[in-house]
Amino acid sequence: MNSHLAPLFAAAVALAGCATAQPGATPAGASLAESRAVAAAAPAPVTPSIPTIPQYASAAQALDAELRKALGGASPEAALTRRDGYLYGQDVAALLLYAARRNDAELYGKLAPVALKLVQQNPDDPYTAGFVLWRAKDGRKAGSSGAAEALWMARALWTGAVSFKRDEDRALALAILDGYAKHAYVLQGVWLARQGFDFGSRTFASLSTLPAYQPDFLAEAERSGGGKDWRGFAERSYALLERAATPSHLLLPVIQPEVGANYPGAGLDVYAPNGIAPLEDSCLGAEGAAQGLPKLAGGLLDFAVAHAGEAGGRLSGFYSVEDGLAAGDAPLSAGGYACLSRLASARGHAEALAVLDPRVLSEMQSAARTRSFATAGPLLLAAHARGAF
Amino acid sequence: MTPLDRPRSLLRAAAAALLALLAVPAAAAESPPAPYYSVHLATAGSKAKALEALKALAGEPAARAEKRKSGYLIRFGAWAERAEAESAHQRYRAKFADARVIQIENPVDWLMADGSIVTVPGSKNAGPADTTPTDTTPVAEAVAKPARPEPPAPAPPVAVDEDAFRAAAQRLDGEVRRWVEAGVARADGYTYAMDVAPLLLYAALRRDAELYARLYDAALPLIVTGDGAAAGFVLWRTKSGSDPEVSGSAEALWLARALWAGHRLLRRPDDRALALRVVDGYSRHARGDQGAWHVAKYYAFGTQTLASLSLLPSYHPDFMEETEPFAGGRAKGIARRSYALLQRAVTPSRLLVPLIQPSLNDVLPGIGVNLYAPNGVVALEDSCAAAEGALRGVPQLAKNVLAFAADGSRRDANGRLYAYFHRRDGRPVGQQPLGSSGVACLARIAVAQKDSRSLPALKAMLLGDLRVLADSPQSVSAPLYAAGPMLLSAEALGAL
Predict the structure, then answer these.
(1) What is the SS3 string spanning chain B?
(2) What is the CATH topology of the domain spanning A58-385?
(3) Chain B contacts of A281, Cβ < 8 Å?
(4) Count of CB pairs separated by less than 8 Å, A with B
(5) Does B168 score more than 50 pLDDT?
(6) Helix B455-471 vs helix B436-448: angle between axes, to the nearest 10 degrees?
């Protein structure tokens, strides 16, 4: 084909594939040969050799105490419900994982029934069995599922099964991973775990973001012999995250093959809108592959240290992947600081911890004061990884 | 459009170009130009007092003082909808006794907080403004700075032998007739809207009733009939016995334009009604409010959902403005909104960001983008398509695109334009050459703009593409898809 005409015809073919979207796609699930030796995805190691700042441990314990106090009331579910009246999958899953890591059967036992409410197990709708809701509210029909929520929930149950010898939790974790597998697809030749499933329209989103990938955990689950539907997903996820890496050390946040298909030859299946990436998403992507792709975590922590140093210890929520400059005025969220802290603890990155500890301390104090348990899970996981308990 | 509408349309276009230049926050930039709605806050007696008052409005869109007979009027915002101004007004009701929403029909230049003057097209004291937008230069500075120097001269235009060009165009025209005679379906058995619609438009413009009628018959099954929710949608492709898969909004625009041209130039009254039916179907791809308004790329019949994604070829405000008075209520306002959206899409490079996807804000909370360039990349062909769709309403878009393409640094060693560029500085991204439909589009807008400086190089590229396609149609999977845009350009160039 003439090279000048080639893009035109490629575009036509791309349009064809794009327009058919799901009908033209290839269901994922076929395993790729495992070529990566991945260490077991054990809980993040504590870094006692790097001392925390004063008040850090007490702030963590205060937040933990507030959480237990709230859960000790008549309705743990009500305690975890946000002001908008919804119970969020991410909030509950992170706390459940925290309880499992603390080996705290009592706390875990209070959270597990709440978590169950977020896992779809409707016999009238077998296709969505194991889907984890993005959020739920009494009296409201299921809205949408979340691939990221599924991974967090499965990981929490998986860890709980080990900590408390609860075989039923392991079975549920595997069922959730089977549900997660239904979110995965190959579109335009690109494998991705789609953001979520809309129960109203019975459709999946056509794009994906970085928190929907946790290959370290998937690799661990695969090694245990569980599941068939998601075998090979760890390898695919590592490959995708590697593709998302940029020289700035931030990760491209959006995977949307239909965008790439419209611009053949430009490599835009994975992209940052206007070149902007959320730091928290980059962190969650790096955290999910901290063991299989440690260079992502290392680079991101170096990035955080450098930019926090330039901004009085504070980080922005968004940065340009091109030049690393902060984009906009939005500060990094509590969840973002918590994620970076967990990553720094896992890697024993003293410089990063020195920058992050004061921020995490402040966020924990704020969460305890306001009894905001939406951020409690990520923060308490960070504090646990930091050796605060 | 009535004759009386015309001056207002021109004013709107000029002011719209200014708003694009201003790169003011979404609320204001979304707005089309005069008449527009603003919030009036107070009147200052002197320039110094006006500047002092403006300091308190930092962050408000288009905060400025307007010097009128009564003094310096402190105002902000420039919205198309009164409701948007009302909403902004609520924040200042308590602070300013005189605060109110006003409709501005006769704009004057704006005095900005930094003391600079923004020249407003249509104002009594308007002067020439640099309409090159920038998102790195302060608003007023961008407007006040001297006109941008001309881009570096491209390589000396390649002299195109007019006879050779004409011969190549006529040869492809003849080949296309042969291909159409053999059937328009591709090897997969499907008839594709983008194979048929541009050629149908071409046949109409050539006033070739026979070719038009043949293509019309092929196009008809692409239009969803009946009274259902998808009536008037244009299918991306169709095959006898196949269920509809997806519609295409860009496909709808092409087909509606072709039918409208068929009605006008070939005196086919039924085609007018069909064109308007397609316009109505196209209009049902539009959704969202204010800054989130967009036209979905397609509708998926299987899931009965509109795509979250929207691309520039899904907008053709000139055509929508022309048909709006005759189309159903759904089409109302689409032209105005499309002009505004395209102006908001302009980047410092002069090309347009290619994607509109407001739902991305749900996926990446806080990122705050509705229109964007993936990885900062803009596509020359899509920018050209947008400029072509707004040639009448916002001609500056076409001027920008042509000026961009005239820069020699945007071409490879063979003189071929690249396809992708960076949105900020316009440097090429990758080595992908611009496709033939992109070159054809540039040639058409150059003709429309009477840009004799750009035409020689574009014609040279187009000549090569015409020859290749006529000589080797078997080497491509969709020769009709390639032929339509090229023949339209050849027609515009007077080669046929």
Answers:
(1) CCCCHHHHHHHHHHHHHHHHHHCCCHHHHCCCCCCEEEEEEEEECCHHHHHHHHHCCCCCCCCEEEEECCEEEEEEEEECCHHHHHHHHHCCCCCCCCCEEEEECCCCCEECCCCCEECCCCCCCCCCCCCCCCCCCCHHHHHHCCCCCCCCCCCCCCCCCHHHHHHHHHHHHHHHHHHHHHCCCCCCCCEEHHHHHHHHHHHHHCCCHHHHHHHHHHHHHHECCCCCCCCCCEECEECCCCCCCEECHHHHHHHHHHHHHHHHHCCCHHHHHHHHHHHHHHHCCEECCHHHCEECCCEECCCCEECCCEEHHHCCHHHHHHHCCCCCHHHCCHHHHHHHHHHHCECCCCCECCEECCCHHHHCCCCCCCEECECCEEEHHHHHHHHHHCCCCCHHHHHHHHHHHHCHHHECCCCCEECEEECCCCCECCCCECCHHHHHHHHHHHHHCCCCCCHHHHHHHHHHHHHHHHHCHHHCCCHHHHHHHHHHHHHHCCCC
(2) Glycosyltransferase (1.50.10)
(3) 364
(4) 159
(5) yes
(6) 140
Phi-psi region of A371 (alpha: psi -120 to 50; beta: other; left: phi over 0): left
**Using an 8 Å Cβ cutoff, are B462 and B440 in contact?**
yes
Full pLDDT tens readout for chain A, 389 residues? 333 333 333 333 222 222 222 222 333 333 333 334 444 444 445 555 788 899 999 999 999 999 999 999 889 999 999 999 999 999 999 999 999 999 999 999 999 999 999 999 999 999 999 999 999 999 999 999 999 999 999 999 999 999 999 999 999 999 999 999 999 999 989 999 999 999 999 999 999 999 999 999 999 999 988 778 899 999 999 999 999 999 999 999 999 999 999 999 999 999 999 999 999 999 999 999 999 999 999 999 999 999 998 888 899 999 999 999 999 899 999 999 999 999 999 999 999 999 999 999 999 999 999 998 999 999 999 999 999 99
Nearest CA of chain B to the CA of A13: how many Å? Answer: 9
User: Rounded CA gap, A116 and A131, in Å?
Assistant: 11
A389 DSSP assignment = -
- What are the domain boundaries of chain A? 58-385
3-state secondary structure A2-60: CCCCHHHHHHHHHHHHHHHCCCCCEECCCCCCCCCCCCCCCCCCCCCCCCCCCCHHHHH
- Give residue-wise pLDDT tens across range A238-289: 999 999 999 999 999 999 999 999 999 999 999 999 999 999 999 999 999 9
Q: Are residues A201 and B309, on separate chains, in Cβ contact within 8 Å?
A: no
Contact between A266 and B472 using a beta-carbon 8 Å cutoff: no
Picking from A9, A252, A322, the nearest residue to B478 by CB comes out as A9
Interface contact flag, B366 A317, Cβ < 8 Å: yes
Domain ranges for chain B, please list them.
5-144, 156-182+345-496, 192-310
Which of A15, A207, A251, A256 is most worth mutating to test chain B (most B CB atoms within 10 A of its CB)? Answer: A15
User: For B257-282, how does the pLDDT look when each residue is reduced to its tens digit (9 = 90+)?
Assistant: 999 999 999 999 999 999 999 999 99
Cα B381 from Cα B393, distance rounded (Å): 19
CB-based contact A272:A256 (threshold 8 Å): no
Two structure tokens written together for A72: 């000790």
Q: What is the pTM of this model?
A: 0.78
CA–CA gap between residue A222 and residue A213 (Å, rounded): 14
d(CA A48, CA A354): 13
By Cβ distance, the residue of B355, B367, B475 closest to A1 is B475
Gap between the Cα atoms of B223 and B289, Å rounded: 27
What residue in A sits closest to B245 (Cα-Cα)?
A: A20
What pLDDT is attached to residue A24?
26
